[in-house]
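Need a sequence for this fold. Nothing fancy.
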């Protein structure tokens, strides 16, 4: 695995540092992918994982 890919993975996960997690929801989409929904004081974060991906994608969805 290249250093660039590892750095991208690290940067995606750094979005969660310092966030207080208030609730967690876990959803399967199929046998290959799943999502973890994290409700924080600063809004909702969604981590998407797929077996074929090198690292998860972290999305910030904002406050409700």
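Here you go.
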């Amino acid at each position: 695995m290249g250093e660039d890919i590892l750095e991208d993975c690290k940067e995606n996960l750094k979005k969660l540092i310092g966030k207080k997690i208030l609730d967690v929801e876990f959803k399967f989409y199929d046998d290959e992918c799943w999502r973890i929904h994290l409700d924080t004081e600063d809004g909702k974060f969604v981590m998407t994982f797929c077996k074929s991906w090198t690292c998860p994608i972290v999305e910030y969805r904002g406050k409700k």
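For context: Strands lie at 21-28, 33-40, 43-50, 57-62.
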